[in-house]
Amino acid sequence: MALSKDELKKAIEEKALQSPKPQLYIKDFYACDPDAKPRDIKNVANEMVREGRLAFWSSGSTTMYGIPSRIQNEEGA
Amino acid sequence: MAKRETPLLDQLETGPWPSFVTDIKRQAETKPECWDILGILELSYKDRITHWKHGGIVGVFGYGGGIVGRYADVPELFPGVEHFHTIRVAQPASKYYSTANLRQLMALWEKYGSGVTNFHGSTGDIILLGTRTENLEPFFWDLTHDMGQDLGGSGSNLRTPANCIGMSRCEWACYDTEEACHELTLKYQDEIHRPAFPYKFKFKFSGCPNDCVAAIARSDISVIGTWRDNIRIDQAAVKEYVAGNYAPNGGAHSGRDWGKFDIQKEVIELCPTQCMWMEGGELKIDDKECTRCMHCINVMPRALRPGVDTGASVCVGAKAPILDGAQFSTLILPFIKVTKDNDFEELTEFIEKVWDWWMEIGKNRERVGETMQRVGLPTFLSVMGVEPIPQHVKEPRSNPYIFWKEEEVEGGFARDIDEFRAKHKA
Ligand code: HEM
Ligand code: HEM
Ligand code: SF4
Ligand code: SF4
User: Fold this and answer.
1) Residue ranges of domains in chain B, CATH in brackets
2) Is A75 near chain B, with CB under 8 Å?
3) A5-66 has CATH 3.40.30.80 classification
């Protein structure tokens, strides 16, 4: 990894805040650190979900990631 | 919740087959909100469009799978199904349940959900249909703490692995499918519970090529038992079958009279590779031509058995027909040992190699079988470090050109032209 874990988290957060669509695929975050392995990006993104900085959005067959406040909550909360 | 009038759905009860409408009405006697399942479906039949929304952010803390959010888009009409989330629960290996466990599961689901289930889903795990968001965490707490059971996979996760009954009841199992499924389920907890991939990923374990879990049709990595030595033949038992003293097919299909057993017609001529014959009253098999289809063994189980040098073939890439039609898995590794003695090392090394490659190369929502098709089998084999063998070839080549890679050419592409010209005039 070229970025430190905290830098990578920042980059992922930026990307998720600025993307036109609120939900992103895990692959959309790969570009945040081209030197990092997909598995590392996935682990960091999952850690950010546990911290509440990202949230999952799932269709049932595919899972996406987004900033909690940007993802539409079907319950309107 | 009130009873719903469902004239359109009621027609589905008039056929000779069992009807989910009857089932759900019965369930509504104890769970009145189930009337709203029928109500919303009736409305869809009238409007000719679904009234379900798709997806959501619901889950239990720390897990990115196992719960599939579903909401009605007409909650004011059908409050009973305002939230109707699906929960997937991991099934025990080979689906052996105790009645106590089933009762406990059902009691839990009556308490927190609609009581409607799908035992089992196509993936192989338990599907509990219909609960509200606020019930998810209490349900999960009871499931994990009181029952020691866990959620299964959904979304872009490794899905709940599944296996055939294998060595627990079946003499044909070429490796211990239950042990393999159980151990790999434990090893890959993170991949089951947290999305890691471009799309869903499944592996399934069958003990022999009869493939009772349909691994070859349903899983991205299909681990199918096989043997590399010879089919074991008991010639005395062959004679008993020929004489009509042993019932073929273990006595199955005995509902009508098929006439006298004919080994030539029913076994030898049906061998797909035509590698069997009778000689001096004995059954002969040219084992190097045998494709391990199991037909002869299924017909004469007392005379024929798989060999003793057993393991598994590994095939990659089955999927359902969302894009580009359905496809079976393709054979990649003809034989590996699948055993706890080496912690299933040969298998897990391969699985992780496939994952690392697919996570990088796979497009969003592309199953690994589609990625494989996109790059072509030769490329996939070379990335996996697998030497091509005749069994990888589907049909004779139709393209006359051969593209060499530099490392395949003696001296490479940059060999000394003068040295070459010394022997070959231009
Ligand atoms: C017209 C209505 C619907 C359509 C067209 C539809 C379509 C689909 C499709 C295309 C898939 C993906 C299949 C795959 O995994 O490859 C799927 C999966 C699924 N759907 Fe639906 N669906 C509908 C209604 C529902 C409803 C009403 C529910 C539950 C209340 C539901 C629950 C699920 C679940 C649990 C999955 C499996 C997710 C997984 O892959 O684990 N669906 N649906
Ligand atoms: C006209 C009515 C319906 C028909 C013809 C129908 C038919 C089917 C079939 C053939 C399957 C595949 C079974 C399998 O191979 O596992 C299936 C799966 C499923 N059904 Fe239905 N179904 C109907 C209504 C419903 C309703 C009302 C619900 C929910 C209350 C439902 C929920 C599901 C789910 C969630 C699955 C997928 C389970 C999985 O992930 O494997 N279905 N249905
Ligand atoms: S797949 Fe083979 S080993 Fe497994 S239960 Fe079926 S016949 Fe037996
Ligand atoms: S297993 Fe199938 S291919 Fe092999 S000898 Fe028997 S019938 Fe022929």
Assistant:
1) 7-145 (3.30.70.2500), 162-227+312-406 (3.30.413.10), 232-305 (3.30.70.20)
2) yes
3) no
Average pLDDT value over all residues in chain B = 94
Collapsing DSSP states into helix, strand and coil, what is residue B336? strand
Residue type, B339: T
What pLDDT, on a 0 to 100 scale, did the predictor assign at position B317? 95
**Interface predicted TM-score of the whole assembly (ipTM), two decimals:** 0.84
In chain A, which among 2-21 make CB contacts under 8 A with chain B? none
Q: Measured between beta carbons, which residues in chain A are less than 8 angstroms from residue B193?
A: none
* pLDDT surpasses 80 at B322: no
Report which of residues B420 and B116 the model is more confident about: B116
A56 interfacial to chain B (CB closer than 8 Å): yes
Atom of ligand 2 nearest to the CA of B118: 38
**Whole-number Å distance between alpha carbons of A44 and B9:** 48
For B272, the token pair is 């797909």
Amino acid residing at B136: L
Question: What are the sequence ranges of the domains in chain A?
Answer: 5-66
Q: Count of CB atoms within 10 A of residue B8's CB?
A: 15
Residues B125-137: what's their mean pLDDT? 96
Among candidates B159, B316, B188, which has minimal Cα distance to A62?
B159
Residues of A in contact with B123 (CB under 8 A): none
Residues 6+ apart with CB under 8 A from B142: B108, B112
Q: Is the pTM of this model over 0.95?
A: no
Residue B168 to residue B185: CA distance in whole angstroms: 18
